[in-house]
Amino acid sequence: MADTKGKIRVIVAKAGLDGHDRGAKVVARALRDAGVEVIYTGLHQTPEQIVAAAIQEDVDAIGLSVLSGAHMTLFAKLLELLKEQGADDIVVFGGGIIPEADIAELTAMGVSKIFTPGAPTTDIVAWVNAELGPRRAA
What we know:
There is one protein chain. By secondary structure, the chain is α/β, with parallel strands linked by helices. Helices cover 46% and strands 18% of the residues. The chain is built from 5 helices and 5 strands. The chain has a 5-stranded parallel sheet with strand order 2-1-3-4-5, with helices on both faces. Helix 2 packs across helix 3. It starts with 8 loop residues before the first strand and ends with a helix.
């Protein structure tokens, strides 16, 4: 994160073969409406494409939406690639259909926050502002 002033910047991403992006679009819109600069990567992105875009766009965070059941693999790969690229200061959070039992493991792996179906967008916006706002203000 080179730029420490200005708006919070977040990539909202859909990885793999998961073709359902309504929730990701709702979250992206809520964040935009709250003043966050959002880059939506579109469907069927690879973790490599998401990390490359995150670095290129100098984002504060990646929000990964996973409805396919591949959350453990996709989050692990994303975190591994960020570390390899020296970009592990980019916060990773996500949401989707993720069993409660997997959330603790994802958190231990380095995912900052998981939002499950039905999470109010106001909660997501509040978390993004609380987690990333101080980083931009520093």
